[in-house]
Amino acid sequence: MAETISLSEMEVGGVGRVVSVKASSSMRLHLFAMGIVRGVRIRVLKVAPLGDPIEIEVGKTRVSLRRDEAAAVILEPFKESGK
Amino acid sequence: MRETKQGTRTVKVGVVGNPNTGKTTLFNALTGARQKTGNWPGVTVERIEGRVVHKDTEFLLVDLPGIYGLTADSEDERIARNFLLLEKPDVVLVVADSTNIERNLYLVLMLLEMGQRIVIALNMWDVAGKVGLKIDVNLLSKLLGVPCVPTVALKRKGLGELKDALLAVSQESPPLYESGYDEKVLGLLSGMAAELPEGNTAIGKFLASLYLTGEVPSPFPENRIEETRQLFKKITSTDPESYFAEHRYGRIHGIVRECVRHTLPPEKRFALTDKLDRIFTNRILGLPILGFVFYGIFWIIFGLGDPLISLVDEIFSWLGEVVSGGMASLGAPEWLSSLLGNGVIGGVGAVVVFVPVIILLYLVISVLEDCGYLARGAFVVDRIMHTFGLHGRSFIPIFLGIGCNVPAILATRTLANRRDRLLTILAAPFVPCAARLPIFTLFTAAFFTQHKAAVLLSLYTVGIAVGLLTALFMSRLLFSREEAPLIMELPPYRLPDLRTVLLTTWRRTFLFLRKAGTIIFATVILIWALASLPPGVKYASDQSLAGRLGKLIAPLLKPAGFASWQASVALLTGILAKEAVVSTMGVLYTGEEVDEEKVEEQLAPKLRRHFNPLSAFAFMLMSLLYIPCIAAIAAIKREIGWRWAALATIYSLCVGWVVGVLFYQFASLIA
Which of A25, A49, A61 is nearest residue B380 as measured by Cβ atoms? Predict the structure, then answer.
């Protein structure tokens, strides 16, 4: 089993694949509807000026979410990073 | 399908889609200006319907809110779901963004599971071509079992084909969709569906899946759902939410892999957006730019709006004088000419006066929303607003409140989540609007000439602080456990469609006038009656009903240091509009109408006899906080209903009184 980290811990430019989404049922449904499901590739694009929220790339969309929401998304980081 | 008398058929079409797909633009392109606006039952989200005739068939199109899924905690998604389940459209038109069909298809698959007849508009087809996406439309239609039609709503392309497809689909039976779920999963769903009124049908099974995932409150007992979930986990070794979502996305990826080819690197779609975002959401520049944009909004709405407001104001007071003068010369009784001149025309004026500002507000907001900047602003500032239990987007209403609370309350429409919206609306009226400024300048001129700026600054600080703390307090009190998520899309920047912006602005302005206008008008008449009755009394004098009421209220204000009936009446008329406090004080303390330019020098000496600096400050605090003006109350009612309007009014009365009294009592102790 590869090492996993939560989306909130991932550095800007980091890329990973979603392994699980551990949040309350309604939060999960929100994340799912935005395309954040197991197996999807996520890249961290940016951190807001005040350190929270963060901006990520999911498939072909850009999504912003707060760090405590991102903490629910568990990723398996890829070795390659940046662009 | 419904047969009408003329023999033409009416086909009801629900228009759904993700936000930022150009759905409303397509809706407008299809229906033109033949639209009807109302509200969805029980909520104040606009419901827009339009009609269009194609061949021998009339389409009744209903524009549903932009949604990603069908969960219960989003008001927009609940509306869409109820429409689909209860109003049963003949066809559902899904507007999808061609440059991002993956996420858009998620909704399509849910609708297919529901057993709806569907047509998909692959909108922004031209953009997809530009960013190097090749979509095999025929194959996509075949794989989904649903006709897909490329469209460019902005350029009105593909509309004829779209209407043909809607017509054709409306005459067919609903597609039989094979979800491809595990046999045992389908068995569980069928078992549940059989107990529902819908029975073991597509819609019944789909509903069962929503109950199981908790997307919709379930009619089944809790332990039944829990048992089924356990069984589900045994079968699939995952929970229902993940199972359905992953299954749908799995299928979507399969379809997209077959139908979509990239001829350019996929980053192309965001090339411009990335460049712009390097500036707009930059770590250092982001906040200053937001400040600059807000300054611009403020300048447009109030800088351009204020001269128009004064103009409307002048026209109506001139009209009022002409009418009452004319009536008097015709020998009409004084009360009648005053009713028409001050009451009726004043009342209409009080409504019309907001029109310029509201039109400008809606224009600016819909441009910002449609071009994609609004989401960025929220992204940049969310950290601050979240501290007070608010959403990044709450910043705009709070900020606009400095100009006028009415557009501030109306601007909360950009908040999708009900919780965020309620909290922002409760906070907004405490932000000191421009109409309160005359009160502050009058009293600072009379009592605090040495410390003008400090006093003004402290009042603004108190107002904004009370607003933000109200949000924090209410978020704890009313929504103890829920946290509203921020999770939001940052759509690509786009040029807004002028036609859509104008139509939206017109529709919202009209709705405001219709809904809030009557309340404002009625209150103006009521206050006029209180100040002018019984017949023969001088306007707002101590003999009038208002004066008597003022005497009743006055003892309540004693702990704040000003127990005069004049001050009470002034606060009473302030319900109309905060600047009315000054003009009422002018009449009551000097016994005559006071010239606007001379109000300070004439009124200041009188005020010094009735107030001391401490009670003057207490009075300013109270008039800052005590009640939203009637237009703001009407706006609250228009947005979230009369219960919340009543709560906001009572709450602010309490806050105003408590803050005024606390200040006076403590300050007197120290002084």
Answer: A49
Tell me the two tokens of residue B396: 């705009």
Q: With CB atoms and an 8 Å threshold, state whether B214 touches A55.
A: no
Residue in this structure with the two tokens 């707060």, named with its chain if needed: A66
Cβ burial B348-376 (10 Å sphere, 16+ → b, else e): bbbbbbbbbbbbbbbbbbbbbbbbbbbbb
- Number of neighbouring beta carbons within 10 Å of residue A65: 28
**A29–B266: do the CB atoms touch at under 8 Å?**
no
Q: Rounded CA gap, B653 and B661, in Å?
A: 12
d(CA B118, CA B115): 9
CB contact at 8 A, B413 and B555:
no
**For chain B, counts of helices (H) and of strands (E):** 30, 11
| Maximum pairwise Cα distance, chain A | 35
How far is the first Cα of chain B from the last one, in angstroms, to the nearest whole number? 78
A-chain residue closest to B74, CA distance? A30
Report CA B372 to chain centroid distance, whole Å: 17
Q: Cβ-count burial of B545 within 10 angstroms (0-12 exposed, 13-18 middle, 19+ buried)?
A: middle
Pairing mode of beta strands B9-17, B2-3: antiparallel
Joined together, the tokens standing for residue B260 give 């979509």
Q: Cα(B425)–Cα(B411) distance, rounded to whole angstroms? A: 9
DSSP B320-331: HHHHHHHHHHTT
Q: What is the pLDDT of residues B371-416, one digit of tens each?
A: 889 889 989 999 998 888 888 888 888 877 877 788 888 888 778 7
- Write down how long chain B is: 671
pTM higher than 0.90: no
The alpha carbon of residue A35 is apart from the nearest alpha carbon of chain B, in Å, by: 6
CA distances to B424, B640, B645, B648 from B654, rounded to whole Å, are 19, 21, 14, 10
Task: Tell if the CB–CB gap between A48 and B103 is shorter than 8 Å.
Answer: no
Would you say B62 and B90 are in contact if contact means Cβ atoms under 8 Å apart? no
Among all residues of chain B, which has the CA nearest to that of A60? B100
Distance separating alpha carbons of residues A66 and A51, to the nearest angstrom = 10
Cβ atoms B373, B379 nearer than 8 A? no
> Is the interface score ipTM higher than 0.90?
yes
Phi, psi of B405 (to 5 degrees): -70, -25
Q: Is A22 on the interface with B (CB under 8 A)?
A: no
Strand order in the sheet with A61-65: A5-6, A73-77, A15-21, A41-47, A54-58, A61-65, B488-489
Mapped onto helix, strand or coil, the DSSP state of residue B20 is coil
Tens digit of each residue's pLDDT (9 = 90 or more) over B10-45: 999 999 999 889 898 999 999 987 777 766 665 556
